[in-house]
Amino acid sequence: MKNRLFFLGLLLSMSGCVYAGQLPAKESAVLEAVADASAQHAEQTPAEEIATHGVPLNDVLELLADCGSFEQSQQSMYFCAWRDAIVAERHLQKVVDQRASKHPELKEALAVRVAHWKKMRDEHCKKMAHHDWGGGSMEPTANLACAAGETEYLSIQMMKDSSVVPCKNKMVNKNKAVVCRQPL
Fold it and tell me: So where are the chain's domains?
């Protein structure tokens, strides 16, 4: 995942255009749609889920075919980041569901923590994308790529260690491991 995000970062300097008029206006709306849809569309492929937002499935599949290519257009990068965000959300939901099934008494608290963490993730990613792209056409793509990376990171950490929960403030300890300073 880190390599893909690194290469995506290299590719972000390419120019292109967003699918004109077909996508939600604000990147926060896309992130909310991704989070909401992860549970509702779990039986669909990510491409089919994207197509439910008004983009023809054949166009989505064509754009996703270029994921990871150095020849990738900006439009394709956006759709690949959107797909990655959907996949990451679904993975996180699966991890949360597994944890909740093992500890049903924590289900509600875990749902609240994850919802709060997602809000903080979205704010962080929006700031980072704006800082890096300053309102440019790549800002929404960078926002989605950040959200996908942060979400996948949390999923992996929660799978590795059952004590890991989403947290408010992260810090790096002397072993260079990220730890929660203040759990939610």
Answer: 2-183
SS3 167: strand
pTM of the model: 0.70
Lowest mean pLDDT among 14-23, 35-44, 104-113, 130-139: 14-23
Name the token pair of 24: 């939600």
DSSP string covering 140-154: HHHHHHHHHHHHHHH
Q: Are 41 and 50 in contact (CB under 8 A)?
A: no
Per-residue pLDDT of 70-118, as tens digits, reads 888 999 999 999 999 999 999 999 999 998 998 888 889 889 989 999 9
Query: Distance (Å, rounded) from C-alpha 48 to C-alpha 52?
Result: 7
How far is Cα 64 from Cα 78, in angstroms, rounded to an integer?
A: 9
pLDDT of residue 63: 94
Q: How far apart are CA 112 and CA 108, in angstroms?
A: 6
Residue 39 identity (one-letter amino acid): A
Question: Is the backbone of residue 68 left (phi > 0), alpha (psi -120 to 50) or beta?
Answer: left
